[in-house]
UniProtKB/TrEMBL annotation:
Record-given protein name: AraC family transcriptional regulator
Domain HTH araC/xylS-type: 195-296
Organism: Epilithonimonas hispanica
GO molecular function annotations of the record: DNA-binding transcription factor activity; sequence-specific DNA binding
Lineage: superkingdom: Bacteria
InterPro entries the UniProt entry points to: Homeodomain-like_sf (IPR009057), HTH_AraC (IPR018060), Tscrpt_reg_AraC-type_HTH (IPR020449)
Any Pfam family hit: HTH_18
Length: 297
């Protein structure tokens, strides 16, 4: 598969036929942009796409997402995206903001950027905006664009970054709202996760694969690991990793009552490579070692 590597904001702006307002950050309007050729791209910078019309597909890995109106998609450096043809006779509307990590160097936003986990969501996990939310996003994009069009001075970077961080904070709030409004979908995912967990431990996967991972279940549910992890945290109050560990400990407690199996055999059966790792986790979660738990009960 041929992958087009887009290294810089300026390179992307040139491909879209847009003026580069700043070499490390740019805001563009779809009304003024050339369409990207249908191809697979590796972005070397952060992108946020605000699509206001249903116009075509953007594919991330094996999953496709056909945009609904007013959607935000976040792309982090290194992500591979496939751009497919627009639907005929429909011109996309919306805005694009792109910025390089170097623009944030030495700022507070640079140190917390990884906290905005939605940059690692898949494109089919886009943020769907209400009309009011869309207006807020457009206003924030316009504020950044207008600032970039001014004669740059010592205040410019501070003002742009503060507006960018404000936008990312609102996006966090909007995603929280989306998790709540799609609660019925989330409950189905949680139920399926529980079923997959139970099935995992009665299969030969612990011996063949090892301990169950967040990535494994995310892939089984056709979700990105970050989106899956955030969804589980919103629904249960604990991380997906903690949820898996609690299930593992519950199953371990049952198996410890089988006196015909040693603690080491139980550990291997659960997928641990080293029994001492099982003992350490069990004592951390239960307060006593597996042998002490067996003797106590």
């Amino acid at each position: 598969m041929n992958i087009n590597i887009l290294k810089s904001v300026g390179e992307y702006s040139f491909l879209r036929g847009a003026t580069t307002l700043h070499p490390l950050i740019n805001v563009m309007d779809y009304d003024d942009l050339k369409p990207l050729n249908s191809a697979t791209y590796n972005f070397g910078f952060f992108c946020v796409f605000l699509k206001e019309t249903k116009c075509g597909d953007l594919r991330y890995g094996k999953e496709s997402y056909d945009y609904q109106e007013e959607s935000l998609v976040f792309v982090a450096p290194g992500q591979i995206l496939t751009v497919e043809k627009y639907l005929p006779n429909i011109k996309p509307k919306g805005k694009v903001i792109v910025f390089h990590a170097d623009f944030l160097k030495g700022t507070a936003l640079s140190t917390i950027l990884n906290d905005y986990s939605f940059f690692s969501y898949a494109s089919n996990e886009a943020l769907h905006l209400s009309e009011k939310e869309r207006e807020m996003v457009v206003n924030m994009f316009d504020t950044i664009e207008n600032e970039l069009k001014q004669n740059l001075d010592k205040h410019s970077k501070t003002l742009v970054i503060s507006q960018l961080q404000l936008f990312l904070n609102y996006a966090t709030r909007f995603y929280d709202r989306q998790f709540i409004t799609r609660e019925h979908i989330n409950k189905g995912i949680l139920q399926r996760f529980e079923e997959l967990l139970n099935t995992y431990f009665v299969s030969d996967k612990p011996q063949n694969i090892g301990l169950p991972s967040v990535n494994f279940f995310a892939e089984e549910l056709n979700l990105s690991a970050n989106y899956f992890g955030d969804l589980i945290k919103k629904e249960t109050g604990i991380s997906a990793q903690e949820y898996i560990q609690l299930k593992l400990i519950d199953i371990a407690k049952e198996r410890i009552f089988d006196n015909e199996k040693s603690i080491s055999e139980i550990a291997y059966g659960l997928g641990f490579k080293y029994p001492q790792h099982f003992t350490r986790l069990f004592k951390q979660k239960v307060g006593v070692s597996p042998n002490e738990y067996r003797n106590l009960n």
